[in-house]
């Protein structure tokens, strides 16, 4: 059994440590299941018993008993600021793993988490800005853009990145940041059309807004829904809708103004790629995924694997697309492969699975479909526009569900996986087997409450 806290201060320290670890993970984009499991594990490692955790979209509540005959104590932590930082999430994961395995004390874990909180991002701001621009460049290449369009997408994304950073520092909500980003991307495309440079605006817009698409949020929403965190899933889903609506609003405003000023923006469908273009597209997909990883502050050792995940997913998508499968089914199948590969890579490198999943699906996000839907709505084709936007939503959901299915397939293939590992699907799963064995040896028991419902022992 875990040792009981020797003093009330030790019990409160264990509770505070659990809340701080959960706050760092939730703010970094972790799922509710991952945060719940982390808080429970940390609190038990600190000596608390009968630990209960409740996670919502913006708050964490943890309670436990210092001893069997003691009154329970509880704490609440609000999480209002969220920013993708996979290096920080990986560092928290390492601290929690070492704590639950007994290799460090609670006091040492507390100091290390404080260091994680105060640590700087691994990449400087100019590097992140360049990575965002390279992401747009790669997406434009994926869609068959030439040199002018690729350069335009690069420039537009630099402007978008600078704008959203400036608005973020001034406290503007994410909706307005995305609206400004969509407005800038579409405006750059319209300026190039007026300059008569032979530019296809959809490619510029698709490259410019891919940075803004809430792919990670959508994956988190689907993950929470599948694992039974319905309240949190609803909040994440609404955030996904709101962020996407911001992009649509910005693009639609610029597009409407351009049409009324007489700027001629033609519809364009991406051509079917030839076999000779496949190597370039695979390279572009790898570049897109690696660039996203840098912009999300992923650890340096994950950059090459994330590039491989992006190329693998795009290769599967191209192969199924040539078999004339629907884009939704092809995207979902590619996401399953990405999810399975991400699970294997995460176990080997001991990093969060979401690092590889989020980066791997970036080339498959439906930015061009969103633009085409908006273009039809602007032309008065309401039915066609709504149909295309619905297709974009369907593809996004297919990507999220497929990636998670791949993770669960990977877990199912591991016949020796412990029950704890089957429960943890993310930040802790790289070492969940040993953690689960340790918890069972200690005889620790507890109950987790998910969105107000009893979920059983963890």
Task: Summarize the SSE layout with pairings.
Elements (H helix, E strand, L loop, with lengths): L7 H20 L4 H14 L3 E7 L3 E7 L7 E6 L7 H15 L5 H13 L6 H18 L4 H23 L4 H21 L6 H9 L5 H12 L3 H31 L17 H18 L7 H20 L4 H23 L3 H8 L6 H12 L3 H32 L5 H5 L8 H11 L4 E4 L2 E5 L1
Antiparallel strand pairs: 1-2, 2-3, 4-5
Helix pairs in contact: 1-2, 1-4, 3-4, 5-6, 5-8, 5-11, 6-7, 6-8, 7-8, 7-10, 8-15, 9-10, 9-16, 10-15, 11-12, 11-14, 12-13, 12-14, 13-14, 13-16, 15-16
Side by side, the strands of the main sheet go 1-2-3
User: How do the SSEs run, as a string of H and E?
Assistant: HHEEEHHHHHHHHHHHHHHHHEE
Measure the end-to-end span. Answer: 15 Å
The description of the largest β-sheet is:
3 strands, antiparallel
Shape: elongated
Number of strands: 5
Total helices: the number is 18
The proportion of residues in beta strands is 5-15%
Content-based structural category: mainly alpha
Low-confidence stretches: 416-458
The quaternary structure here is single chain
Average pLDDT rating: 80
Percent of residues in helices:
55-70%
Radius of gyration, whole Å: 23 Å
């Amino acid at each position: 059994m875990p040792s009981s806290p020797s003093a009330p201060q030790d019990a409160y320290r264990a509770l505070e440590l659990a809340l701080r670890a959960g706050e760092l993970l939730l703010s970094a984009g972790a799922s509710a299941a991952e945060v719940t499991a982390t808080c429970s594990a940390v609190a038990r490692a600190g000596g608390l018993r009968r630990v209960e955790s409740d996670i919502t979209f913006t708050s964490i509540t943890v309670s436990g008993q210092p001893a069997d005959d003691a009154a329970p104590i509880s704490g609440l932590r609000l999480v209002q600021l969220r920013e993708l930082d996979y290096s920080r999430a990986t560092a928290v994961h390492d601290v929690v793993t070492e704590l639950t395995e007994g290799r460090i004390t609670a006091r040492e874990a507390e100091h290390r988490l404080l260091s994680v909180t105060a640590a700087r991002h691994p990449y400087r701001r100019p590097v992140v800005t360049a990575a965002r621009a390279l992401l747009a460049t790669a997406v434009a290449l994926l869609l068959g853009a030439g040199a002018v369009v690729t350069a335009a997408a690069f420039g537009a994304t630099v402007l978008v990145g600078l704008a959203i950073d400036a608005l973020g520092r001034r406290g503007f909500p994410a909706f307005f940041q995305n609206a400004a980003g969509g407005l800038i991307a579409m405006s750059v495309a319209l300026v190039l059309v007026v300059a008569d440079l032979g530019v296809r605006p959809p490619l510029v817009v698709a490259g410019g807004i891919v940075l803004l698409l809430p792919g990670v949020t959508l994956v988190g929403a689907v993950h929470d829904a599948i694992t039974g965190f319905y309240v949190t899933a609803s909040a994440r889903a609404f955030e996904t809708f709101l962020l996407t609506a911001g992009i649509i609003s910005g693009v639609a405003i610029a597009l409407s103004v351009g049409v009324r000023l007489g700027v001629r923006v033609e519809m364009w469908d991406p051509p079917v790629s030839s076999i000779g273009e496949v190597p370039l597209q695979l390279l572009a997909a790898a570049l897109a995924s690696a660039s996203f990883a840098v912009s999300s502050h992923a650890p340096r050792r994950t950059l090459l694997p994330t590039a491989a995940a992006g190329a693998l997913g795009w290769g599967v998508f191209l192969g199924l697309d040539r078999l004339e499968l629907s884009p939704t089914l092809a995207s979902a199948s590619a996401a399953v492969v990405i999810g399975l590969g991400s699970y294997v890579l995460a176990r080997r490198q001991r990093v969060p699975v979401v690092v590889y999943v989020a980066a791997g699906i970036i080339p498959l996000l439906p930015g061009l479909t969103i633009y085409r839907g908006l273009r039809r709505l602007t032309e008065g084709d309401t039915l066609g526009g709504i149909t295309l936007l619905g297709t974009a939503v369907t593809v996004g959901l297919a990507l999220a569900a497929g990636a998670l299915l791949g993770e669960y397939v990977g877990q199912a293939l591991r016949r020796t996986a412990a029950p704890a590992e089957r429960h943890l699907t993310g930040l802790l799963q790289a070492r969940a087997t040993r953690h689960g064995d340790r918890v069972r040896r200690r005889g620790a028991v507890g109950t987790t409450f998910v969105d107000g419902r009893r979920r059983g022992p963890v």
